[in-house]
Amino acid sequence: ATHDEAVRALKRAGRVVDLEVKFLREVTPYFRKASIISEVGWELQRAFLCPLGPGATSSPPAPRSPPRADTRYIPLQLTHLARNLKHPDPENRCIELHSPDGIHSCVLRASDSQEALAWFNALHSTMARSTQCALVEANRSLASIIGELKYIGWLSRRIGCEQNGRSSSESSDDTDRWQPVFVAVTDRELRIYESAPWSIEAWSRPLECCALASTRLAGAGNSSSVNSNSAAHQSTVFCVRCGTARGVISHWLRAETHRDMAAWARALVQGSHNAVNYQREFSFRCLYQGRPCQLIVHLDRGFSLLEGGIGPSSKAIWCHPFDRLKASADDGIRCLFLDFGADDGEIELDMECCPKPVVFVLHNCLSAKVHSLS
User: Within a 10 A sphere around the Cβ of 192, how many other Cβ atoms?
Assistant: First the structure.
């Protein structure tokens, strides 16, 4: 009986109703399948870069799954594709899909590792093209806000290895030691987000932000300092070191493929070179022989130490090109040592904070100059 027929029958019935229920075995699998499928995947609440707020203009709605009980669509735009991230998979049969907001996930298991690899490669190629389209679309809206995006995507970050370049020696068999992060390289910055920034407002609020001019790539493809929960991932781990006034912040990051790691390494190195080429001159406050000064690092002219502040009346105490530098060192706390081979010997500068930003800018300037010659 239909629902309407059952309602009419109940209205005509007396105080006692006998209800007969029949078990239809042939349709039970269909309902069970529909129930399972309904829990798979996620729905996007709005389209990518959809404006927020009451005054926002309308935008295309986010794609939805079709109104069929036995079918679900999983949107792949800025979805995180991973293996052995949150679900241990010693047989390499599983593929993990995590929603852009990091809330939902879908784990697919293949019959064997070869089938899983084939599906992973197919998804990876499709999602790489989708990410590139998202980058182009984002640049139309974000270039004037955060600068031009050069490279974006998902990486896994080792938890507990961020501060002062020290990495934990604890075992990383626990998969929670790796945390998914969305990373963007702009023309001047390395930006890290907890999830894929879906709106213009979210793009302007990164979890962490480092200047590329004082950022260095270290240990690409070398996992000796940090363990991975899968041997297949050991050669796709790399370290990014950011020099700040508080010290060096090290991020151990893991890509999903060797090609991904190479692309990230290229984006970071080229980004650092482009950042110093764009700015060219960097100024750092310091103390020299007890006097307040400004240390200038210029991509073309090398080092200059000016009395007091920067201005037309500032007097240069000394100037040296890069090729005069014989050695440099720092104590990691506040002192920078420069040796230009002059009669004065080693020059000591009190940077009044961690000297690593100066050191990393110097390294990137020299690296950019060498790269321009090759």
Answer: 20
- Residue 41 placed within a domain: no
* Residue 292 domain boundaries: 281-373
In this predicted structure, the answer to whether residue 59 has a pLDDT above a threshold of 60 is: no
H or E stretch covering 356: helix 356-373
Query: Quick check: helix, strand or coil at residue 302?
Result: strand
Spatial distance between the Cα atoms of 46 and 75, rounded to a whole number of angstroms: 12
Same domain, 299 and 251: no
Q: By three-state DSSP, how is residue 139 classified?
A: helix
Three-state DSSP class for 140?
helix
The enclosing H or E element of 371 equals helix 356-373
- CA dist 222 and 7 (Å) reads 70
Q: How far apart are CA 186 and CA 274, in angstroms?
A: 10
Longest dimension (CA), the chain: 113
| Cα angle for residues 40, 45, 51 (degrees, 5° grid) | 155
What percent of the chain has pLDDT above 90? 64
Q: Which residues contact 351 (CB under 8 A, 6 or more apart)?
A: 284, 285, 286, 295, 334, 335, 336, 358
> Per residue in 185-221, pLDDT tens?
999 999 999 999 999 999 999 999 999 999 999 876 5
Identify whether residues 363 and 240 lie together within a single domain: no
Q: Please check whether residue 108 lies inside any domain of the structure.
A: yes
The answer as to whether 2 is a domain residue is no
Range 3-24 burial, b when 16+ CB lie within 10 A, else e: eeeeeeeeeeeeeeeeeeeeee
In a domain? residue 43: no
Domain count of the chain?
A: 2
- Tell me: do 195 and 287 sit in the same domain: no
Task: Indicate if the pLDDT at residue 26 is higher than 70.
Answer: no
Query: Which pair of tokens denotes residue 301?
Result: 């002219």
Task: Return all residues near 267 (Cβ < 8 A) that are at least 6 apart.
Answer: 150, 151, 185
